[in-house]
Design a protein that fits this description.
GO terms for molecular function: DNA binding; DNA-binding transcription factor activity. Residues 1-60 form the HTH lysR-type domain. The protein has helices at residues 5-17, 20-27, 31-45, 61-83, 87-91, 101-104, 107-118, 131-140, 203-212, 226-234, 280-302, and strands at 50-52, 57-59, 93-99, 122-128, 145-149, 157-166, 168-172, 183-184, 192-196, 218-223, 240-242, 255-261, 265-273. The chain has 316 residues and is an alpha/beta fold. The protein has three domains: 5-84, Arc Repressor Mutant, subunit A (Orthogonal Bundle), CATH 1.10.10; 89-164 and 267-302, D-Maltodextrin-Binding Protein, domain 2, CATH 3.40.190; 168-263, D-Maltodextrin-Binding Protein, domain 2 (3-Layer(aba) Sandwich). The chain has a five-stranded mixed beta sheet, with helices on both faces. Helix 1 packs across helix 4 (61-83), helix 2 packs across helix 3 (31-45) and helix 7 packs across helix 11 (280-302).
């Protein structure tokens, strides 16, 4: 059997794209060249791997079996080859990170600055998506890894705890609750609530807290962007419950932020595909994010920064 690495890589692109033309465009080969590679691979294996139609390509049972095993094998082989280059492979290259908006807005700028200062030859690309889209991108291999609220029902992924943070109240500074140093969840009863929508990883946790604390408020708006929530609250359309990473407040805002008691926290995790090792350069960035978070938490502990959940109202 004389199967080449090139044939296997071409097969995996075809298996993913389900189309010879799209596969050729992705890896810079003509459609006849793609077809020839697949024919040669099938000839070497003595198996039919794909069923061809006029438009699409469907994997046979043998093709599905091969693709399922080959994906991880090729990934590990590529990592092994990169590791032969030593330290350069760990500090040179491109890394794509998927992150939910309430995480990327505050945490990722710190990571980008730290990476530029420490690893100038690493190109970081942030893919800013809602939580569900981040998880899908991780599964599809469109990003190297993601940063999300700890997901439920994601046993096919590997997660690693990064940090925890309690939810807080955001309201106008002239709202009666803004006069308090902290607000109990039960005091939200009767309020109009402007919340993150269901595509946010935080929303199930907020709903759970509202239910546990028997809050009987009215959800008037469910939105995907924090900036829109700020605007709605600013206009007096309700109050909101947000994680501290969704802050700081807009410049010149007259909104107030207060801790909510008892504390209900969301856990932020790094997430990657299970049974798939990170490339050396992606692993370097993974560890860098841990360092950035540790330094951020140390700043809070030493008083260099204040946790945003306890911040004084801006403009009051």
């Amino acid at each position: 059997m004389n199967v080449s690495l090139r044939q296997l890589k071409v097969f995996m692109v075809v298996a993913r794209s389900k189309n010879f033309s799209r596969a050729g465009a992705e890896i810079g080969l003509t459609q006849p060249a793609i077809s020839r590679c697949i024919n040669e691979l099938e000839g070497q294996l003595g198996l039919r791997l794909v069923d061809r139609t006029t438009r699409e390509v469907a994997l046979t049972d043998a093709g599905i079996t091969l693709a399922g095993s080959l994906d991880r094998v090729l990934d590990e082989l590529e990592i092994a080859l990169l590791q032969t280059h030593g330290a350069e492979a760990r500090t040179t290259g491109r890394v794509r990170i998927g992150a939910a908006p309430t995480i990327s807005a505050t945490l990722l700028p710190r990571v980008l600055l730290a990476s530029q200062a420490t690893y100038p030859d690493i190109a970081l690309a942030l893919v800013d998506q809602m939580q569900r889209a981040v998880l899908d991108s991780v599964r599809a291999g469109d990003v190297d890894f993601g940063i999300v609220v700890a997901p439920q029902g994601a046993d096919d992924l590997t997660t690693e705890h990064l940090m925890s943070e309690p939810f807080c109240l955001v309201c106008r500074s002239d709202h009666p609750l803004a006069s308090q140093a902290a607000v109990h969840w039960s005091e939200l009863s009767g309020e109009n609530l402007v919340l993150l929508n269901q595509s946010s990883g935080s929303r199930p946790l907020i709903d759970r807290a509202l239910t546990t604390q028997k809050v009987r408020g009215t959800i008037t708006q469910e939105l995907g962007h924090v900036s829109t929530i700020f605007r709605m609250v600013q206009e007096g359309l309700g109050v909101s419950v947000l994680p501290p990473l969704a802050l700081p407040l807009p410049e010149n805002s007259t909104l107030a932020v207060r801790p909510l008691l008892p504390a209900f926290e969301r856990n932020i995790v790094l997430v990657r595909r299970k049974n798939r090792s990170l490339s050396p350069v992606a692993h370097t960035v993974w560890e860098l994010i841990h360092r950035v978070v540790r330094e951020r938490n140390k700043g809070f502990a030493m008083g260099a920064e204040r946790p945003v959940a306890a911040a004084a109202p801006s403009g009051s």
